[in-house]
Amino acid sequence: MSADRLSASLAELDPESRALLELSMVRGIPDDDLASMLGSDAQRLRQRRRAVLESLGVESPAERAALVGTLRGEKPPPGTEPPREAEAEPPSEEPAGDEPSPGRGPRRLVWALVGGLMIAAVVALALALGSDEVGSENTGPTGPAPEPEARATAPVGAAPVALDPLGGSPGRATAQIVVGDGDPKLRLRVRGLPRVSDGGYVVWLYNSVSEAQELSGSRAGTFSVNPPLPPEADRYRFLEISREPADGNRNHSGASVMRVPIEKIPRASR
C-alpha cells in the first residue's frame, strides 16, 4: 500500500479507532493495561485492533511498520525500505522493564502516557469497547441534531450514488432513497464483496463506531436490501457497510468497507 493511500485511509478513520492505534502501536501501552483503563478486556481490544487494521488493508509486517510511521507523522525518503519487522509488531502483553512504582498503577500509568491524545476520542473508545452489555439499542448522538434545512440533499430523480470503498475493499455498491407514501426507504445494491465465512456485512447509519444505527445486513458478499429509514436518520452523516464477526455483539466492529455521505444519496419517487 502506498503512503498516500495509507494516509487517505487514516484520514477517513473514526477518532476512536485512531486512538486505539495511537495508544497500542505508537505509544506502546500494553494490551492488559490499556484494556484496564478502558474498562474492557485484552481479547476484545485485540479483536477491535485487528478489525481496524483489516479495514485499512494493513496485513504484512512492512505495512504495519509503515502505518506506525504514518501515525507518527514520519515521511520516509523515496526508495527507502520500511522499518524492520520488530518495529512494526504491536507491544507485548507482558511489558519488559521494571514494574510501575508503588502508587502508580496501570490506569494512572496509562493516563500519563496518553498525553496530548484527545480525551473525548479515548472516552468514546472506552464506550465502544465496553458496549457488550449495552445490547443493540442505539441512544443516538450526544450532541444536538443538525438543522434539516442546513443540510444539502442530492437532487430528486438522480441516478443512485456509488459508495466509496474503504481499506482497499474490492466491492461495489449504489444507494438511493425512495420516497412517497409512508416512510422513506433505502434502496441499496451491493456487489463483489468477499464472502465472510464467520460473520457477514451490516448496513449502518453512521457518525462513529459508538454512534451507529443498524439498518440491515447479509452474510453474502452480493446482496440487495430496502430497509425503511427511521425518523432520526438525518442525525447521521454517513451510510456505511461494515464487516462484522459472528461474536454476538450487535455494535459496530470498526471494520468499515464502504461509506457515502447521506446528503449525497439521491431521492427517487415511488
Concise structural overview:
With 270 residues, the protein is an alpha+beta fold.
The average pLDDT score comes to 75
Count the E strands: 10
Strand content: 15-25%
Shape: globular
From the N-terminal CA to the C-terminal CA, the straight-line distance is 43 Å
Q: What series of H and E elements makes up the topology?
A: HHHHHHHHEEEEEEEEEE
Please mark out the parts with pLDDT under 50 across 5 or more consecutive residues, or reply none: 79-109, 132-150
Give the class from helix and strand content and strand pairing.
alpha+beta
How many domains is the backbone divided into? 2
Percent helix, as a range, is 25-40%
Rg, rounded, reads 20 Å
| Biggest beta sheet attributes | 5 strands, mixed
Description:
The protein is of the alpha+beta class and 270 residues long. It has two domains: 3-133, no CATH class; 148-269, Immunoglobulin-like, CATH 2.60.40. The chain is built from eight helices and ten strands. The chain has helices spanning 3-11, 15-26, 31-38, 42-56, 61-71, 85-88, 106-114, 119-129; strands at 161-162, 164-165, 172-179, 185-191, 199-208, 211-218, 223-225, 238-245, 256-261, 267-269. The strands form two sheets. Strands 1, 3, 4, 7 and 10 form a five-stranded mixed beta sheet that branches. Strands 2-9-8-5-6 form a five-stranded antiparallel beta sheet, with no helix packed on it. A hairpin with a 5-residue loop joins strand 3 (172-179) and strand 4 (185-191). The longest helix has 15 residues, at 42-56. The model is unreliable at 79-109 and 132-150 (pLDDT under 50).
